[in-house]
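[agent] plan:
  1. take the single chain provided in the ticket
  2. run structure prediction with default settings
  3. attach structure tokens to the ticket
  4. add a short note for the reviewer (M.T.)
[agent] executing step 1
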Amino acid sequence: MPAKKFIFILNHSFDKPDNAAGALQLATNMKAFDAELDFFLINEGVLIAKKGFAETITWQKKDGFSPIHNLLKTLSEDFGVKFYICASCVKPYGLEGAELIQNAEIKPGSYLGQMLMERQSVSF
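[agent] step 2 finished; step 3 output follows
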């Protein structure tokens, strides 16, 4: 049976850390079942792609999720998940010239549209 393909659309980071952690935790669990998935980061979600930013998010309320920085490292470094950053969000969120996490890449919103034609979406 071919693996299902998903695109996680993540809108949050520091503003709603439990949402971000929930998305990353679900994606980690799904990768354990060989699901093909990537992330498209928009709005405050783009900030987790800035190297070192995830380590500053320490105020998660739900103890059931691993820390955001651990989940991010597992997904990007261990599982090779791609984190696409909305090009329209780069300047407003101060990512111009910033060092990014492994497997992060800036893409236009049209790229998300293309991915949505081929994958199921999961939004947080």
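[agent] step 4 note for reviewer: The mean pLDDT is 94.
[agent] ticket updated
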